[in-house]
Design a protein that fits this description.
CATH architecture of the largest domain: 3-Layer(aba) Sandwich
Helix content: 40-55%
Largest sheet: 10 strands, mixed
CATH superfamily of the largest domain: Periplasmic binding protein-like II
Number of strands: 12
Shape: globular
Structural class: alpha/beta
Distance between the termini: 103 Å
Order of helices and strands: HHEHHEHEHEHEHEHEHEEHHEEE
CATH topology of the largest domain: D-Maltodextrin-Binding Protein, domain 2
Oligomer: single chain
């Protein structure tokens, strides 16, 4: 009888062990092993496209040029481009601090200086246009047809005619300050308004006040149908406006997308992008001329 009881007890232990093993395997089959189901793998979301941060002057943005270029670049490369339209000075600071990957700006002397300082690499000329002095049709300073921008600025200051400046350390603002310096003047007074705005908004304010201002030709042409201001001074060599593209130096900022920046630079100087730039017109006029 004792042996029968022991045999029965042993049988119960074996059955219990089998049940435990079965339950363990059942749980593992429900996902306890950590292995993914092939169907789950097929249902996984596709990987996100790489992100590229472009800091660029407001003129390339306000003119609509980037609406032509960026979608082509994204389609060709798979990158998603985040555009930060700011004055060139602000763009340079963003790049210097590693808050952008690639820059498209227009202050060549300052760009080259910062390349030499090691903040940027792989700079290339991309395109150019020119600056123009705009003003009201009645032209109270009498500058229409003048070919010397500095003399025109002297006449505006002398007549105390309202002048609207971007006042934002942009490439346009840097050029304006260079013309005032050439004229031997430091503009001050109620007639001189530094608004701290991009080119589009500066043009809107100048138009509202029927004032003089300095603008790149591209943004002016893009907005001409909204303005009554006229081009009064042009074709002075000092008003030449070169645009350049460059990458943030990964040695200074290791977290930037240098690979994407290189791809963008290669695209901007490619025959395809240069053709897009050259064919971008408003009112039958080229806004930018390619020169990569």
């Amino acid at each position: 009888m004792l042996f029968e009881e022991r045999g029965l007890w042993g049988l119960k232990l074996v059955v219990a062990a089998i049940i435990v093993v079965f339950i363990f395997r059942l749980l593992a089959g429900c996902g306890g092993s950590g292995q993914s189901n092939p169907q789950d793998q097929n249902a996984a979301a596709p990987p996100q496209k790489d992100r590229l941060i472009l800091a660029t002057t407001t003129s390339t943005y306000d003119s609509g040029l980037l609406d032509k270029l960026v979608p082509v670049f994204e389609e060709k490369t798979g990158y998603n481009v985040d555009i930060l339209p700011k004055g060139t000075g602000a763009c340079l600071e963003l790049g210097k601090n590693g808050d952008a990957d690639v820059l498209l700006v227009h202050a060549k002397d300052r760009e080259l200086q910062m390349v030499q300082e090691g903040y940027f690499v792989d700079r290339h000329d991309v395109m150019y246009n020119d600056f123009v002095i705009l003003g009201p049709a009645n032209d109270p300073a009498g500058i229409k047809g003048q070919k010397d921008a500095a003399k025109a600025f002297k006449a505006i200051a002398g007549s105390k005619s309202t002048f609207v400046s971007r006042g934002d350390n942009s490439g346009t603002n840097m050029k304006e300050m260079a013309v005032w310096e050439k004229a031997g003047l430091e503009p001050t007074g109620d007639w001189y308004l530094a608004v701290g705005q991009g080119m589009g908004e500066t043009l809107r304010i100048a138009n509202e006040k029927q004032a003089y201002t300095l603008s790149d030709r591209g943004t002016y042409l893009a907005m001409r149908d909204k303005l009554t201001l006229e081009v009064l001074v042009e074709d002075d060599p000092v008003l030449f406006n070169q645009y350049g593209v460059m990458a943030v130096n990964p040695d200074k900022n290791p977290n930037v997308n240098y690979k994407g920046a290189k791809k963008f630079i290669e695209f901007m100087i490619s025959p395809e992008a240069q053709e897009i730039i050259g064919s971008f017109t408003k009112y039958g006029e080229q806004l930018f001329k390619p020169n990569a």
